[in-house]
Amino acid sequence: MLLCAPLAVALAALLSLPVAIDDAADKANYVEGLAERSLHSLVVDAAQEFLDDYAGHARAPTVRYRMADALYEMEEFADALPHWRTLADLDGFRFQSESQLRLGQCELQVGTPAGAAQALRRLVEQGPQYLQLPARALLGESQMRLENWDAAAEVFTDVLKRQPQGGYARDARVGLVWAAFRRDLFEETAARAEELLRGGLEPELRREIAYLAGESLLELGRNNEAADAFAGVDSGLYATPALRGLGFAHAGAGRAAEAAEAFARLLEQDLDSDQAAEASLQLGSQLLQKGDAEGSLAALQAATARRDAPTLYWTARALIALQRAPEALPLLDAALQAGPDEELLAHVHGARGDVLTQLGRGEEAAQAYGKAGSLDALHAASISLLNEGDALGALERVTPLVEREPESASLRLTRAEALFTLGRYAEAEADFQSVLAAGGAGQMARVSSRLAWCRYLVNAHAEAAPLFARVLRDHPDTPEATEAGFMHGRSLQLADRKAEAVVAWHTFTQSMPNAARRDEALLGMAELQPGVEGLPALETLLADHPESPLRARALLETAERRSAAGDCAGAVQPYADLLQASADPELVSTARYGLAWCLEEAGQHDQALQILAPLVDPWIDAAQHETTPQSAFDFDLSQAALELCTWVAHEAQQPQRAEQCVRALAHMGAAGPVVLDAARTAAAAWRTAERPELALALLGELAQSDDSNPDALIEAVWVALESERVDDAWTPMQLALQRAPDDGGVAEAAFFLGEALFATEDFARAAPLYAASANASGSTLSDKALYKQGFSHLRMDEYAAAASAFERVVQDHPESALQGESLFLLGECRFRLDDFAGAVTPLQRLLAEHQGHESSAKARYRLGLALGQLERWDEAEPVLADLARQSPDFPQRIEAELWRARALAALGSQRAAQAAFERVISEDRGLLAARARIGLGGLWIDEGRLEPALSEYLKVAVLYTTSDEVSQALYMAGHCLERMGDPEQARARYQEVIAKHPSSSWATQARDRLQAL
Fold it and tell me: How far apart are the C-alpha atoms of 527 and 554, rounded to whole Å?
């Protein structure tokens, strides 16, 4: 197998140098590194070596997995198979499920679908969710190969339910096409195939699916569609059978010339004798149908040795066409003896009748025609099928009759009705037009109506409207006219010709007072006429159609329009009638709101409250019990009802009811201004009732009144805090800060609300409260507030804002107990802002001025790293050494040791630096170890030891994944190789940096080196 050049060179360099990969873990990591780079053949070798040396190692299953996967990718399925079987049976192995999937794939590849099905079925039953789709897709493939078509269809259907789109969905759809076809489910096959063909398929699969679609459509008698499908199979495995299907499709559609051409092309193929005989028969029959009797006879004579009924029949027909009737008669007699099917039997009898007529044997001819069946009888049969609901059967029966009698209006009418029933409106319309032109076959009104419906049902409403109008005009006394009167208006309405629709419906409702759907037309008129303009239609509907199912809607429309026009008195009765007449919750709710509004306008407050109760009580009860209503009405309507109820309760001097509504509005989450307005109304009601303390309590609780004073708001904050309702304290707190930002009580409340928010990790809201408390002139908690403000910003990674707050503690509150911690956090924030010089000063102050502080270890760690970042190595090394001595269990001790190693290296302490780097490598397997290896490489380069340096760099490139470190290691490997006199391998390393890490700074340097080389 070919390898990517840079990786191959890297591997060659690694294998040729004394790279010490001397323990099982590193060897396993090495296999993983090769696998990640898709070096499959090398994975197999390295994995086999590992398994030979460490067969019982804990990572042996994973190594075997990588080996099996590499063999699979190399398409060495037979070699991979035993490994997958071992892993698939290994309980507890983390990739056991994946191994079962691969086992199924390999079993399929080596031709053992039963084994595949067994493995995949186990995975489907017990495997994880993320493998269900591929496992089911492959199980379906296995069942197909085993020809278990029902099982395959079941699996593929399940795949589609789980993934309607995507790669597995496409494969499942292909499988379902085959499963349906193999089970003779041709409707399903055609539908699924057509769905697939509408998407993007590769050419060979498209031809395969097109062939299956053609065969199924042919079986269904949909010849035109079948021909289109077969025509798309122009090459490949299915080209020859598709050519046969194309011939039969053209034949079935009555296109004899095209059918003959297809069968003639088929005869040019290298086919066996049975297919050749069939093709000859079909070629002969189609040539005869297109009028080429001589060519037909020549083709049929090639198949007459079969002596089957169809061949004998068509040969006789060719002879008849050539006026050689005497020769045809014995062939027809032989065809009868050959046992033709029922359809062919009728044709044979008909042909015998034709021959006997030509021979002057009239009586015998009559008997033959009788056995063939008459056109009238066949027509009656098709009408019976149509009446019984078998429109497709009727169409199939009547279509040949129309072809025999194309001028027959009655036959065309039957076919048109069948097509109409099947929803094939364009074809039906053509036949209805023909019937109408011929005089309508005695059903002019029905035919005219059907023509209008054909247009309407394809959404051509503008074209349907004049056709319905024509039915009205030409056939006014028919049942169709009544229907057309309504449909004329409906078509105009849907065509967005509203004014014309109103006129049409007005004419309809005036001229046909007892017509069906008159109520619907009246409501339609009203809907097209805004405001009071539509009231006459609504009033007519209510007066003339008291039992109409549209009565409730008409009542609501009437009431709403009168109310909107300011006629509340006139709206009351239709609202009230609607409440009595309808059980529709939506209509009833809307009517209740409207009626209550009108009653309130009339000063009938108690009645209005009674009407509103069913709308507002569920929300009031929910607010009282802190629940959600079991059956809540529309949110917007419920909110409007609660607002109205608040005002009505105020007018009715029922403040408790008003407050209930306010609480319900707040509970349901109404907008702040809405709740505020309602609260003001309820408060006014309480004041009117001489209970101002309740008004203040409500305003304080909601914290929405511009008239609130700071003391009341602050009390509301404390009440909310004491009851652990932190969110309820936020709004009054904000209002208090706006009113009295320097008030000591406000500052204290702001601090403790900040504390409560901080405890819930809502730092975004806590920080500004701490700031307000710290900045208040009357605050006694300024240092604590600044500290907690800084801590809040720190928790939100807003380091600049945090540093500013901590710096104010340090500068403004030198005696604060928080001075030491603030020094550390100030240094920490500056460090995170990459302001390393700025971080040094506060960290040094903490260590000097607050010895023994609990943050001393963290301060030494950050100070050491900051000094290292500034390359002040002589200061950094003793700080990090102190950290190692005084805090041996410090969580970041390994990173600190890495920086100490760098400091030692920079200070020329090579041996101590090497020991420190190696300690990092021994205790870390990730990023720090990679950086330590790069540091070791630098030590070896400084000593002129290029081979061990190259070894460390290549270990980083193979065993680690971090982009910066790998790109640096690859670049430094190239540097080593240059100095070792191997420019080709050096060039490969630089190219790998550019290819895999193009945006790194090392890629820029690599490009420079490539130009130099």
Answer: 10
In angstroms, the CA 215 to CA 958 distance is: 56
pLDDT tens digit sequence for 148-159: 999 888 888 888
Q: Is 175 exposed, middle or buried (0-12, 13-18, 19+ CB in 10 A)?
A: buried
- Placement of tokens 């309405």 in the chain: 493
Dihedral-angle region of residue 576 (phi above 0 means left; psi in -120 to 50 means alpha; beta otherwise) = alpha
Is the per-residue pLDDT at 791 higher than 80?
yes
Reported as a single tens digit per residue, the pLDDT across 819-840 is 999 999 999 999 999 999 999 9
From residue 632, alpha-carbon distances to 474, 579, 582, 585, 658 in Å are 54, 18, 18, 10, 19
Q: What's the burial of 891, exposed, middle or buried (CB within 10 Å: 0-12/13-18/19+)?
A: exposed
User: For the chain, how many residues are written?
Assistant: 1013
Question: Which amino acid belongs to residue 181?
Answer: F
Q: Where are the alpha helices (DSSP H) in 776-870?
A: 782-795, 799-812, 819-832, 836-849, 856-869
Mean pLDDT for the stretch of residues 387-400? 82
Distance CA 125, CA 850 (A): 65
pLDDT tens digits, one per residue of 475-528: 888 888 889 889 999 999 999 999 999 999 999 899 888 888 999 999 999 999
User: End-to-end alpha-carbon separation of the chain, Å?
Assistant: 29
Concatenate the DSSP letters of all residues of 400-426 into one string: HHHHHSTT-HHHHHHHHHHHHHTT-HH
d(CA 1, CA 40): 8
Using one digit for the tens of pLDDT, what is the confidence trace for 195-208? 888 877 888 988 88
Put simply, whether the predicted model's pTM sits higher than 0.70 gets the answer: no
Distance CA 918, CA 569 (A): 95
Cβ neighbourhood burial of 167 (10 Å; 0-12, 13-18, 19+)? exposed
pLDDT band at residue 296 under the 50/70/90 scheme = confident
- Residue 464 near residue 455 (C-beta atoms within 8 A): yes
Query: Taking CA 426 as the corner, what is the angle to CA 421 and CA 427, rounded to the nearest 5 degrees?
Result: 70
Neighbours of 838 (CB within 10 A): 17
Model pLDDT, residue 607? 94
Taking alpha carbons only, the member of 773, 727, 709 closest to residue 746 is: 773
Kindly report the three-state secondary structure assignment for every residue of 698-732. HHHHHCCCCCCCHHHHHHHHHHHHHCCCHHHHHHH
The conformation of residue 247, written as its DSSP 8-state character, comes to H
| 908: CB partners within 8 A, 6+ apart | none
Q: By the 8 A CB rule, do 397 and 382 touch? A: yes
